[in-house]
Write a structure and sequence with these properties.
By secondary structure, the chain is an alpha/beta fold. The chain has 7 helices and 12 strands.
Length: 206
């Protein structure tokens, strides 16, 4: 058990589930290894690396895994799981996957090759970058190419299945794109309603 995670209200069962996949330094900061970088979290500090590695809470090749929860930050995934524990009856059937602050094709390829027969959910951010990550990841997991570009008028152009779609930054989301394109990826994208992130939601009530 980690005292700062306990202070945030993260239940013992979730801490125990994630404990093998994190480290604690001499200052009691928590670190999550992505192989080529670390996410660091502690009082007043949260650093998410730019990396081509991945952080997992669980094993990607575990045949018992039925649900993948994917986001940029390990701590955001843990916060989401804390706030939505009622949705998942068995933590051993869940794999948490963090990509770091970027989203690389090699990361998505590794996830895609291992997610067949499993449900996926995205916990990327509410900002434009997080909403773009939703569509890029959804298209990759369905093995469909997509091109997303920011125009000079600050609108987004999306090229998908030989069609062009234009969105304002504020109107763009995975759900909005599905409505416009008529294509359903069948992947949940969760966004906190009352805070900028699930981690901030936990920190506000701690």
């Amino acid at each position: 058990m980690h005292p700062y995670l306990t202070k945030l209200g993260i239940p013992a069962i979730i801490q125990q589930h994630c404990l093998p996949y994190l480290e604690t330094d001499q200052n009691r900061n928590i670190s999550f290894s992505f192989g080529d970088g670390y996410e660091i979290f502690g009082p007043g500090r949260h650093w998410v690396p730019v990396t081509q590695g991945l952080w997992f809470a669980g094993a990607l090749d575990d045949p018992g895994i039925r649900h993948l929860i994917i986001g940029h930050s390990a701590m955001e995934l843990i916060a989401f799981l804390t706030l939505h524990r009622h949705l998942f009856d068995d933590l051993n059937r869940i794999l948490l996957v963090a990509t770091g602050s970027g989203l690389h094709s090699s990361q998505l390829s590794l996830i895609r090759d291992s997610c067949e027969g499993k449900s996926c959910a995205f916990i990327f951010g509410k900002d434009l970058f997080g909403r773009i990550a939703d569509l890029k990841a959804a298209a990759s997991l369905r093995k469909l190419p997509v091109s997303i570009s920011l125009r000079s008028d600050e609108c987004l152009t999306v090229i998908f299945r030989s069609r062009h779609f234009v969105f304002t930054q504020n109107s763009f989301s995975l759900n909005a794109f599905e409505r416009s394109s008529g294509f359903r990826f069948r992947i949940h994208s969760y966004k906190p309603k009352s805070a900028s992130s699930y981690l901030h939601q936990l920190e506000r009530r701690a």
